[in-house]
Each structure stands twice: as C-alpha cells, then as structure tokens.
Specification:
single chain, about 160 residues, alpha+beta, Bifunctional nuclease domain, 6 helices, 8 strands, about 35% strand, globular
C-alpha cells in the first residue's frame, strides 16, 4: 500500500471529473505517478469544498456521514483504494468505535470525500497504482489558480436545489 494525498480535481477532455491521488513519498529511481479516478460531479464538488475549507450552503451527504460518525463516537481510521476490475475502482473505509473495528465497502469517490473531511489517511494498493497510475507531470500541468477561481465562482452561483437527487 502507498499513502496518497488528494492532488486536486481535474476535468478530462470529455469534461468528466477526476480526483487525482498522489503518493506522499516518491520512491528514488521511480518516475513519480498520480492515480486518476473518474468520479461524479457531486462527489467532485464535495471533495473540492472539503479541500478548500469552504462550506456548502446546506450539509452535503459526506458532511452528514461525518456528523453521524461523530455522533456514534466512531472515527475513520483509514481509506483504501483496494483494487481495480474492468476499469472500476473499489475502496474500503476502516472505522473504529465503541463496538469495534469495521471495514465498509465504498466507492472511492465517497471514501475520499469522507477522508478529506475527517483528515483520515488515504492509501492505494501498489498494484492499483501500477495498473492505473499516470506520470505525475501529466497531472501537474493544471493551472490550480484557475481551478480555485472557477470553484469560487461555482460556490457563488450554487443553489441548494443543485444537490437534490
């Protein structure tokens, strides 16, 4: 397993959202890699809100998850992207609380959105990073200042009805 951080949210050529996960430590002699995981717009928004320190006008699903865990005196120990099968990523959330330790199956987008809210470590299986990782320079050519400006404009224009399912 490799511990990663959220590098950011990007858009691909088809304007689909991608969360970019970058290893915290880079191995000497190994080209740096980033793991792109395609996610939905709501999950991308939720992750962006959490990593920017902003708050949504109303609590999002991941805020509710955090509140429920806090209420139950349960904490997220770690999040793991465990495998990729036929292009689909799988993740697990490890929780600990008064009734013990539990591992919960989750979509990586939800697991990452929760992890950034509760400051839990995020890990990726070595074989997942090997199979789906891309050279870091491809992901880091983004203009982060432009992304932050676009996100702030989004927050100014967002309407609570935008998050209704």
């Amino acid at each position: 397993m490799v511990q990663v951080r959220v590098l950011g949210i990007a858009l691909d050529a088809a304007r689909q959202h991608i969360v970019l996960l970058k290893p915290l430590l880079e191995e000497e002699g190994v080209d740096p890699r980033v793991l792109p995981i395609w996610i939905g717009q709501q999950e991308a928004t939720s992750i962006l809100i959490a990593i920017s320190g902003e708050e949504a006008p109303r609590p999002l699903s991941h805020d509710l998850m955090k509140l429920m865990l806090d209420t139950l005196d349960t904490r997220v120990v770690r999040v793991e992207v465990t495998r990729i099968e036929e292009g689909t990523f799988y993740a697990e959330i490890t929780l600990t609380g008064p009734s013990g330790v539990y591992v919960v199956d989750a979509r990586p987008s939800d697991a990452v959105a929760l992890a950034v809210r509760v400051d839990a470590p995020i890990w990726v299986a070595d074989d997942v990073l090997d199979a789906a990782g891309i050279p870091a320079e491809l992901a880091e050519d983004r203009n982060e200042e432009t992304e932050v400006d676009e996100f702030k404009r989004f927050l100014d224009d967002v309407d609570p009805e935008d998050f209704q399912g």
